[in-house]
Amino acid sequence: MGQSEKSQVIQGAFWKFAERIAAQLVSLVVSIILARLLSPSEYGTISLVMVFITIANVFVNSGFGQALIQKKDADSLDFSSVFYFSLGFTGLLYCLLFFLAIPIADFYNMPILVPVLRVLSLSVPIMGINSVQQAYVARKMQFKLFFYATFIGTVISAIVGIFLAYSGFGVWALVAQTLTNNVIDTIVLQISIKWKITKEFSFERIKSLLSYGWKLLLQSLILQFYASLRSLLIGKFYTTEDLSFYTKGNQFPDLISSNIDTGINTALFPVMSKAQDSVDRVKAMARKTTDFTSYVMSPILIGFMAVAEPFISILLTDKWLPCVPYLRICCIILLFRAPQTAILQAIKAVGRSDAVLKVDVPIRIFAIIILCVSLQHSVYVFALSEIAVTIFGTILYVIVSKKIINYSGLEVCRDFIINVLMASVMGVIVFEIGKVLTLPSFIILGLQIMVGAIVYIFLSILTHASSFTEIKMMAGKYFLKYKRD
């Protein structure tokens, strides 16, 4: 990876990471407040509705947006064509969700789903506009705009959600928070970006972009449908409380992982796309990303597993402790995201969107078989089965990466496993501290975090971890620059 490319990725990742951290810190505070004000069943209701909204948003956020980023010479006509197409298509999606609300509510025997789904579905056409804006920002590497738009939208929506929850609006507080966030985010981006909508449209450009994007769209749809299917089945065969604990258990680890993972990979894909003619350069970027992402994510996820119980008890109260096993399972699953996403971005960047689809189909077939078997047992076993699916998927991704970018399984293990092993040693020490000490929970939690950080840094120095050295160098450069300024 060249110095200019590394600089682009680092700067882009920094602003994307800052955007996600700022947004998620506010969201975390709001989530804690709302979890104390609302019941698990109310959270279960909104979780069920969000399944259908998320599936609809796959059509919006996948395919065309990434095709616009990957296309070397995308111009105003491309962006305007996708904008008008997305607007019309998402309008049809909203109508579909509006009329499906009644049969969905009847299926789950929950009348409240009708108005909630119809109102929350308004976010779909809003996200249709937002997806084109995000593609423009990512292509231009103007990730600072994401930070401002997301932060403003998150803060305003947080105020709205908390106010309505305190006023006794229940599930509608969550609906209002989600819609407000989407609207403000879209308005701020539209004001900020230089690209403006023009009165031009080309079916030829849509067809051209669709030839690349439809495979990614279908892959994302399969992936999201499978993820949603798990929630739908829990909501149907178990209880809304079970769904709420399952969703809340996934929320915190995913929040941590998505901040780092999304920040790095959102910045990485445009840079990889520019280097798509050189497989060696793309492979080098994929290796560096796997190493760096796993180095940062592994201690956070494994450390979170170790402190899960006091963390949930302190922040959400003991009524949410049943979500702890799901939280720990989710952390294990997300450990494998570092190599998977680095390989995925590399495959997409070199134009092999067909390979992405070919890999994901057998993964989902295997996943559905595992899902059907585990459903007969308990929600815990149901959640646990996803670990087997994740390991199987990682193996397939590694096989494909060897064929397309010559990134072998041995190299992936070298870039990934050492960081996980270091984090695991740290996690065992942190967990044992929690078992031995009898101090108040918040003091134990603070000590666990402090000791965990010290141990991981010590292990990084002992093993000469390359990512640790690079972080030190980056920190030193920024410190000197700050001192000069």
Question: SSE layout and pairings?
Answer:
Blueprint: H1 3-37, H2 40-61, H3 64-70, H4 76-108, H5 113-120, H6 123-139, H7 144-166, H8 171-192, H9 203-237, H10 240-274, H11 279-306, H12 308-316, H13 324-334, H14 337-349, H15 353-374, H16 379-405, H17 409-436, H18 441-462, H19 466-484
* Cα radius of gyration in angstroms: 22 Å
- Report the structural category: mainly alpha
Termini distance?
Answer: 29 Å
Low-confidence stretches: 1-8
Helix amount, in percent?
over 70%
Note the overall shape. globular
Strand content: under 5%
Report on the biggest sheet: none
Counted by DSSP, the helix tally is 19
Q: What's the β-strand tally?
A: 0
Pfam families: Polysacc_synt_3 (PF13440)
Transmembrane segments: 21-39, 45-69, 81-104, 110-133, 145-166, 292-314, 382-400, 412-431, 443-465
Keywords: Cell membrane, Membrane, Transmembrane, Transmembrane helix
Subcellular location: Cell membrane
Task: Describe, in plain words, how this protein is organized in 3D.
It is a multi-pass membrane protein. The chain crosses the membrane at residues 21-39, 45-69, 81-104, 110-133, 145-166, 292-314, 382-400, 412-431, 443-465. It is found in: Cell membrane. This protein has 485 residues and is an all-alpha fold. Residues 1-8 have low confidence and may be disordered. It has 19 helices and no strands. The protein has a domain at 238-485. The chain is 86% helix and 0% strand.
